Amino acid sequence: MSLIALVFALLAAVMHAVWNALLKRSRHQFEYLWLIITLGGIAGAPVLVYYIAQGQLGENFWWWLLATVVLHTAYLQFLVASYRLGDLSFAYPIGRGLSVALVPIIAALAYDEQPSLAGGIGIATVALGIFAVGWPGQRASWQPGHFRALAASTGAGVMISICAVVDKAAVMQVNVVPYLIALFVGMGLLSAPIALRNSTGVLSLLSGYRPALIAGTLLCSVTYLLVLFAFQLSTAGYVVAARDCSIAVAALIGWLILKERATPMRVTGVVLIVAGIIAIALGG
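Structure (tokenized):
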């Protein structure tokens, strides 16, 4: 993995953890997510128009865009559900850790990007860490709500894995900047009917949470841009692995700032996931 790709992915890791923490803390989570994506699309719309006018979109741009917009919109549903049902330090490690484990496997099938021995050990370690984070632990935790949170987090991980593989293929054929902007515009439009059902929540966010909206918009937009550039420079599995060192950052935010419970199993699971991610990255 090249140094530039690693730097891009690690910067994206920190930014991703922070804007997900902002999302978790929001009173209107889906509406907040929709707003930061929509605002990002609106801000970049003039640039998108320029690229369209200049004919600089790349090969099969619209087909790639259609696929990624549909997949990412489905991912947003799982993401918000996971945060509504579970802690940040629970949902984030499972969703992101699962994507790290799945992307190299999917990429091996789709692009013949074969993981090394270290990569294979890393994938197994991540899987063990996910099991530890998701383990209910105390008898009181064996409740339907826990398993709903686990299912939503797992769904988010599966969807982002598929999104990552599609985006990896897309950025080898299309221009990254208009692709990202068009993705935000598409997700904003496709998710608008759901978000606007809670128009009160949208208006509340616009009137009283502007700093959080601006911060979330900038962090979310730059995160995706850095990841797409990293995909152009390295294999999909290793970019996802480096980016998802954000798991440690998100867990620390959950425990230290959001005051979530740091159980021994959850801490052990996060450590295993991060160790597995490092093994996967070193395997590249």
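The chain has a mean pLDDT of 85. The first helix runs from residue 3 to 25.
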